Amino acid sequence: MLGINRKLEELEKAGTIINVGLVGAGQMGRGMVSQIENMAGMRVVLTADIQLDNVVHAYVKAGVADVDIVQTNSAEEAAEAIRSGKVAATTDARLVTSSTEVDVVVDATGVPDIGAKIAWDAILNKKHIVMLNVEADVTIGPLLMKMADASGVVYTGTAGDEPGAIMELYDFADALGFEVVALGKGKNNPLNLAANPDTAAEEAARKGASAKMLASFQDGTKTMVEMTAVANATGFLPDTPGMHGFVSDVKGLPEIFKLKEDGGQVSNKKIVEYINGVAPGVFAIIASEKEEVNHEMQYLSMGAGPNYVLYRPYHLTSLETPISIARAYIYNEATIAPWKGLQAETVTIAKTDLEEGQFLDSIGGFTVYGRILSAADAKEKDALPLGLVDRHVQLKRSIQKGEIISYSDVVQTKESTIWRLRRMQDETFGGNL
Predict the structure, then answer these.
(1) Domain carrying residue 264
(2) Between 211-218 and 221-234, two packed helices, what is the crossing angle to 10 degrees?
(3) Phi/psi at 47 (5° precision)
(4) Could you tell me which residue ranges the Oxidoreductase DRL-like catalytic domain spans (predicted)?
(5) Buried-most residue among 32, 82, 124, 371 (CB within 10 A)?
């Protein structure tokens, strides 16, 4: 199997490139467009955003000339622009998912319900779909993956995001026959369950980031969602609800992940976890029962054993997404997908005391945060998946700070795609994914 770089060069030489359609020209989307403009064998030919200026800005920043950017909501005009070597900018996401000129669709919106619509439409149009939207994936990914399989296309998460980077370590170790003890990531900032857009505003302004997005990292929600994606891909589960959140450097990880009876700090193997002190890296804890393997690992300065750490100190977020695009198109392979079905769930927790009749907001907002549970535990508690929360979800009773919000606690005042697909997923697969 040729390396992706050489396969892309072959495509370019043969006069065939991978035509990418992108929905969402925010920070992640812009970076991806610029990265792909440097690459052989691939181009973002059609991009949608509710703010058309965002799309134009993304292309201009990537080095595309103004005269080569066609602004249109017409499928025919977009197709003609692409065929003539130009790119198209639109406000209509369905133009991207249905275009005959697009081979692979990328969702970079970050909004679960919008991501659900994009993935659903892309699969129905028999296009590979790359999700930068982990929140949508952990909510309805098992259904979308099975739909994609039935349609003969690839449903995948992205390289560069922590789940994709963790999966690369897992696949490497698992293929070699190592026992994989734990999988995890570093957390970039101390856990603050009360974080909201107001408390995060100053730091967000300093970093030029969205306060809401930053709050979703600070309150732990993004970490819970990311490790839920890893759980659904591998079958690994949190050792405790919400995970432990140990503090360590890389060197200390092998000792932490020994079982408690062996002097470590965990009760189980095959777990997902996050660590304060190793961000922005990801890791896999591996072990072997073979004497010669342990001798070799020690000779290679991998530590004294019995646990060893594989550590990747970086992840390049959407700049690595082209790798997943190419794997889907060239090899028909996913980078990461919920192969094990719904193993874990990021459930909805009240961030503060909430009143009957109050509407919830969304991830990174003022009302709720996420916590990872096993899917069995979440089902027993009738817990509301966090990916279903939006401003149309209203409380039927008052909820205390820190309490799990259940399905029976809420009423949905406006039907949404992600609710409908989650209902379909539950009815179709039950608890037997």
Answers:
(1) 162-316
(2) 60
(3) -130, 135
(4) 160-321
(5) 32
Asked if 73 contacts 98 with a C-beta cutoff of 8 angstroms, the reply is no
What is the rounded distance in angstroms from the CA atom of residue 320 to the CA atom of residue 158?
8
Sign for the CA dihedral angle at 383, 385, 390, 392 comes to negative
Judgement on whether residues 276 and 384 belong to the same structural domain of the protein: no
3-state secondary structure of 63: coil
- pLDDT single digits (tens) 388-423: 999 999 999 999 999 999 999 999 999 999 999 999
Residues 32 and 150 in one domain: yes
- Model pLDDT for residues 42-90, shown as the tens digit of each residue: 999 999 999 999 999 999 999 999 999 999 999 999 999 999 999 999 9
With CA atoms as reference, report the closest residue to 40 among 2, 69, 94, 78: 2
Question: CA geometry: angle at 333 spanning 6 and 28, to 5°?
Answer: 80
Same domain, 15 and 155: yes
Which tokens go with 69? 């950017």
DSSP secondary structure string, 161-175?
Answer: SHHHHHHHHHHHHHH
